[in-house]
């Protein structure tokens, strides 16, 4: 009898697999202004080895499914002869994605603005000439998975992203490659769909009430959040942190991808201060304050400096215990 008086919840239906899209793709060839390593540039978009919205295939092609202002779209990117980049796109967002292909791949980035003050960074930059900072121009698609990654293991966050996209996302337009796996590519849900995901589905995905509430607050003002993509870094950081539950860590992780923010430092990370301290000063016990002091000579390029440090491989062996996956039923 108690159940008959329970409040009703309007839940969105789970998505069914879509038939393959056999419509012709829109295509584009683009010549980048310098060396370009697609794996390094696009890698930050990957949220785990089975990310429903991203695939890097053995043949050197990269696939990205996203929700653009024009609608869902799928983008395939690969290297072409002559140092060019070949792209094909499907769906309502195809033209939007191709028009912004250079921006996505770092055409607006200026690697020459970085002046290494440490031998390690100079050597790493020399060995990685194809590193550019991408810019998606889309805030929510980076903000939501960044919220999911707050204070949990990466495996937990990746699992939540994977389950929520497969359940409530839109099957991506375009061809279906067997290497995508049994579920194929998915475009993340729109703001309304995120807002209608019932509490038990967040629980099933391992997302606690604090993170799900933060996502729900963000999607209610999704348009205002997206405006941050056109802002300078200080204003964009402030715009995102208006939302309770979004702090400097989440804002920086988002804007590094959406805005190509070369100076967005990930403050509040468990491991990054020790990694930077070890690489630049031999101090694996550095905190955020010391990390910022060490990165001060790279003002304007501090995120690029941390990317180069991570790519150098000069990181300390882990001593701090990893986060253990939590049982949110006990919270």
UniProtKB/TrEMBL annotation:
Question: Where on the tree of life does the source sit, at the highest rank?
Answer: Bacteria
For this protein, the record's Gene3D superfamilies field holds: Hypothetical protein, domain 2
Q: Does the keyword NADP apply?
A: no
Instruction: List the residue ranges of the region (Disordered).
Output: 1-24
Keywords from the UniProt entry: DNA damage, DNA repair
Entry's InterPro entries?
Alkylbase_DNA_Glycosylase/TA (IPR051912), DNA_glycosylase (IPR011257)
- Put simply, this protein is called DNA-3-methyladenine glycosylase 2 family protein
The species this protein was found in: Streptomyces halstedii
